[in-house]
From TrEMBL:
Record-given protein name: Mitochondrial
PANTHER family: SULFIDE:QUINONE OXIDOREDUCTASE, SULFIDE:QUINONE OXIDOREDUCTASE, MITOCHONDRIAL
InterPro entries tied to this protein: BLH_phosphatase-like, FAD/NAD-bd_sf, FAD/NAD-binding_dom, Prot-tyrosine_phosphatase-like, Sulphide_quinone_reductase
Domain Beta-lactamase hydrolase-like protein phosphatase-like: residue ranges: 2-108
Listed Pfam families: BLH_phosphatase (PF04273), Pyr_redox_2 (PF07992)
Amino acid sequence: MKSINEQISVAPQIRPEDLVEIAQSGFRSVICNRPDGEAADQPTFEEIEAAAKKLGLETRYQPIVAGKVSDEDAVMFGELMNALPKPVLAYCRTGTRSATLWSLAQAGDLPLADILQQTGSAGYDMAGVVRRIANGGKTPTETAEDARFDVVIVGGGAAGISAASSLLSRKSDLDIAIIDPADVHYYQPGWTMVGGGIFQAADTAKTMASLIPRGVHWIKSAVAAFEPKDNAVILDGCRVVKYGRLVVCPGLKLDWHSIEGLVDTLGKNGVTSNYRYDLAPYTWKLVQETQAGRAVFTQPPMPIKCAGAPQKAMYLSADHWLKAGHLGTIDIQFMNAGGALFGVKDYVPALMDYVKRYGASLNFFHNLIAIDGPARKATFEVNSPGQDPLKVDVEFDMIHVTPPQTAPDFIRVSPLADAAGWVDVDQATLRHKTFENIWSLGDVMNAPNAKTAAAARKQAPVVAENIVSDMKGHSATAQYDGYGSCPLTVERGKIVLAEFGYGGTLLPSFPRWLVDGTKPTRTAWLLKERILPPVYWRAMLRGKEWMAKPEKVSAA
């Protein structure tokens, strides 16, 4: 907690258990300026609010997308400051957004020098907002420039770091910057295994600093907006980064709030999700503790990261119950908002064998819309073709929830997005359809492929190859075939290795005699458990394109 003055302090992300110390320090109100779902290990505002209420603290939720502090946001923050009991503690991811809001809210009442001195004494440099205050909130991107790079990459996940490494492997003198505010990089494909008791959560996380390729600049900030006409990215605090080429790959937003009541009960009352780092261990705890009752597994409308992950959680849980002798007393329900078990029909027969083995009930066109954790009740909207929509309540003893997923807010409102909010690219070259010096890969772009880390592994070399070709004045030389892989963990020790491209075309990496992807095999399990994690950390993120060399564009 860093004091700006007697009335206001700011802080990085707080946790519910911190509220006792905050109250004891004399604070009477808390303002949350961080949107829920910004990071995988982030507590929700409702969790903070519940803990604060017990201590008599006032709370307000004013979520601000990183870097997108508008004039209206500052006015609202000023109104909250005037209305709330003081002193007030405001927080976001690092405290910068809260300090920025206060600075802009005070612009008409305090001299600029006083604002900078007070925030500076708290450890926050507001120099980037000076231009904003002096110019009425408008950043002159046509002339402003705080930094410039040959290539700017937005997003330091699997796609972003792999793209940077693949670029450097082709042109080592490139001046590259990765923009990402996160301190931790997660191997998200491992969270299914954490929820199944195979991996430890800590083994799926490394510091971002340890993974940024040598020679690449890491701008530890969030993106506020894109100004492609000026080849500029606007950062938190209104700093301007110019680029020669831009690569956009910030991943997806997990929309926990779109399910009523979900954020109030995550991590308790038998409600869990392998889509959050801190919750995957709770999945395994619930699986071990459940010996009877109803276990529900949900799948929202597409698109989502790894379309097979919701049923992977079901299979690994059921396999444990089978081996523990509890399967006969557990009612397994799979609630799928779609109309098929898996989107590529070649893999469905093998999966159906396991559905029957575990006695799981398949419920299609069932979309989770609300959850009451204490009552152990989930509400689904059922939209069966040709029938009127209806709502059904399902009781549960444990429920694994897959949250709906969208493009991040700063992508959806940007000039880069299509009508649905995804970055609009050519599905073969991954180049933006409107802005010729912009490319996109990973989960955020609109090519009709599976959103998996395996897809990003194939996309990164394509983007790198085509950017370097563009720099040489040539047209695209590499193309992406839509490859994606989904290792479906049907039991502990066996996997159905689904590998496919655009249109559901099967694209196996191995000869059928070694791995028949349409059937469960121990070889595929070995690949998932022992081989893919080190390939991810030591090869993919370092630009070593093992079995990922880009396909050349066919001559016309």
